[in-house]
Design goal:
This protein is an alpha+beta fold. The chain is built from 6 helices and 16 strands. It has helices at about 1-15, 20-25, 35-60, 60-90, 95-120, 280, and strands at about 120-125, 140-145, 150, 155-160, 170-175, 185-190, 195-200, 200-205, 210, 210-220, 230-235, 240-245, 255-260, 265-270, 285, 290-300. The protein has a 7-stranded antiparallel sheet. A 4-stranded antiparallel sheet has the order 9-8-7-13, with no helix packed on it. The chain has a 3-stranded antiparallel sheet with strand order 10-11-12, with no helix packed on it. The longest helix is centred in the N-terminal third of the chain and has 30 residues, at about 60-90.
Length: about 325
């Protein structure tokens, strides 16, 4: 809520700077700004505050849709209906003039970004350590949205059905309880119809124990505590990968025994004790899947990137 208040304050400050009386008051301070300068600097504040508030309230996905459609609508209306009137009056400075100019210049670019991001590829920055040791906090992942078919954004309706998630894939998906605001990345462990059991840090799929091989101790970084945890190699059917587990109380103490419904998938993080996944919110319906993670674009968690991991397949 703190960020929303900050964005709202920035927006109202910028709006206040548009009014003549407030502009004259602010111009009276020894900052070297004239009344015109104060009003001109207030418009970017309105813009930044409004954008920030929109992203926080609507979420990135819904905001990008609304913002792109709004910019394109304003640009089209100006081009076909009011351009002649606008040109006759001249390019007078003002909030609406700046808004129209922005829409005219960036509508095509925003539309292109929207199409690519929602129907082709998008990047995702990993915020937590739930997929350590494979994926670390601060990693930027490239997601192929062709992998599991094409979906219409926001309404999660599939328009082209091809490609199915495979066991062991790392997939990007919308959180079923809050699909417009929250996006998760986890590993596909259970396929439709699978009987999944999880107990004492051991996974069973259709009654068969998934073998684990102890590798050694490794520090995890997602919590900031850099705890030493047991690193193991887990042998999923058709795919092997590394996991982290620890002793004592953790998320893994929750036991699971269920059959994955049709058109749904059981998702888990590789950092088994520190992952909020299908053990808590249940299997994920196929309509919420966004795509398959292809490789690491950039690893950056701190003051500088880890160049050695760029382009690493996951």
């Amino acid at each position: 809520m703190t960020y929303e208040i900050i964005c709202l304050a920035i927006f109202f400050l910028g709006l206040l700077m548009q009014y003549q009386m407030a502009a004259q008051l602010l111009a009276s301070f020894p900052l070297g700004f004239s009344v015109e300068d104060t009003a001109r600097h207030g418009r970017p504040l309105c813009f930044v505050g409004g954008l920030g508030l929109g992203v926080l309230l609507l979420g990135v996905e819904l905001f990008l849709l609304v913002f792109t459609v709004g910019c394109c609508a304003i640009a089209c209306c100006h081009r076909f209906f009011v351009q002649a009137h606008f040109d006759e009056r001249g390019q007078e400075e003002g909030f609406w003039t700046d808004t129209i100019s922005f829409c005219r210049e960036y509508a095509t670019f925003l539309l292109l970004v929207f199409v690519i991001r929602n129907f082709a590829f998008q990047h995702y920055r990993v915020p937590t350590g739930s997929l350590e040791p494979t994926v670390r906090p601060g990693d930027f992942l490239l997601v192929n949205q062709f992998s599991y078919g094409w979906h219409l954004p926001i309404i999660n309706t599939k328009i082209a059905d091809y490609g199915e998630p495979k066991r062991g894939d790392i997939a990007l998906f919308r959180l079923p309880s809050d699909p417009y605001r929250v996006i998760y990345v986890k590993r596909v462990v259970g396929l439709p119809g699978d009987h999944i059991e999880y107990k004492n840090k051991q996974l069973k799929i259709n009654g068969e124990l998934v073998l684990q091989e102890y590798i050694g101790l490794e520090q995890e970084f997602g919590t900031g505590h850099q705890e030493w945890m047991s690193k193991r190699k887990e042998f999923l059917p058709g795919k092997s990968h590394d996991i982290l587990v620890k002793g004592g109380f953790g998320f893994d103490d929750v036991e699971v025994d269920l059959v994955v419904p049709e058109d749904a998938y059981f998702m888990m993080g590789d950092n088994r004790d520190l992952s909020l996944d299908s053990r808590f919110f249940g299997p994920v319906d196929k309509k919420y899947l966004l795509g398959k993670v292809m490789f690491l674009l950039l690893s950056w968690d701190g003051w500088y990137p880890d160049w050695s991991r760029i382009g690493e397949k996951v």
